[in-house]
Design brief:
Helix content is 56%, strand content 11%. By secondary structure, the protein is α/β, with parallel strands linked by helices. It is elongated and about 85 Å long.
């Protein structure tokens, strides 16, 4: 056999072995991700993140081949980042965090106007946005309601922050958390998908931002504020 024929044979064997290795890695990553989602057990998080980041499209193809919902891949990416980033996220004070909410949470009757930094909520009470803002902003969070990815980029460029909480659908949330990985992101999935009048579990958002712990620590002050509001007295 000629030397160049041997070289082509070796290259072919190498390519086949490489493809087999990649398939094995994809399967391992998918299995570890499923274990995370179903058993809440995080094993080899760095490997999972590597597989989701580098082999995102092939992993979705594998999920489809196995007759699984390919949104599973995004869900795995979101959950592993939530767990990996949680400790660092909790160390950062709310004043150095932002919350990014999608405009699709709005009610069809929403009258809020679009400003340079996003949609300006009027607290009409017709959707989850006002509730989240009213709880998060007194804690120190900045809350943005964005109509698209271009506004997210603008927010990142124009604001100084150390961490971020995002609410979105599977694909958008996973890709945004991937892009903002240096900011220890936490993500909450929409409970209903679509581009119009979507829903989110408000209690899950409040738990993510640490509202319930904040309320317990400031219970007396918050009770006083609520009492003043009930009798029509402005707190000093």
């Amino acid at each position: 056999m000629l030397l160049y024929e041997q070289a082509f044979q070796w290259i072919g064997q190498f390519v086949v072995l490489l493809i087999i290795l990649i398939i094995i890695i994809l399967i391992i990553g998918l299995i570890l991700g499923i274990i995370l989602l179903r058993r809440n057990k995080l094993v080899f998080p760095s490997l999972i993140i590597f597989v989701v980041n580098v082999f995102y499209s092939p992993l979705k193809s594998l999920a489809n081949f196995l007759r699984l919902d390919d949104a599973l891949v995004d869900h795995i990416g979101i959950e592993v980042r939530n767990k990996v980033n949680k400790a660092k996220f909790d160390e950062i004070p709310p004043e150095e965090k932002i919350i990014v909410l999608p405009h699709c949470l709005r009610s069809r009757e929403c009258e809020a106007s679009l400003k340079e930094s996003g949609i300006k909520c009027t607290f009409c009470g017709k959707c989850a946005i006002g509730t989240i803002k009213s709880k998060a902003e007194p804690m120190g969070y900045k809350v943005f309601i964005v109509p698209g990815s271009s506004f997210v980029k603008k927010i990142i460029q124009q604001n100084r922050f150390k961490s971020v909480v995002g609410v979105a659908c599977h694909v958008d949330l996973n890709q945004t958390m991937m892009a903002l990985s240096d900011f220890y992101p936490q993500g909450v999935l929409l409970s209903t998908s679509g581009c119009f009048e979507t829903k989110v579990d408000i209690s899950q958002v409040l738990e993510t931002i640490g509202y319930y712990e904040y309320r317990e620590k400031n219970k007396e002050l918050m009770d006083k504020d609520n009492s003043d509001d009930e009798i029509g007295i402005e707190p000093s």
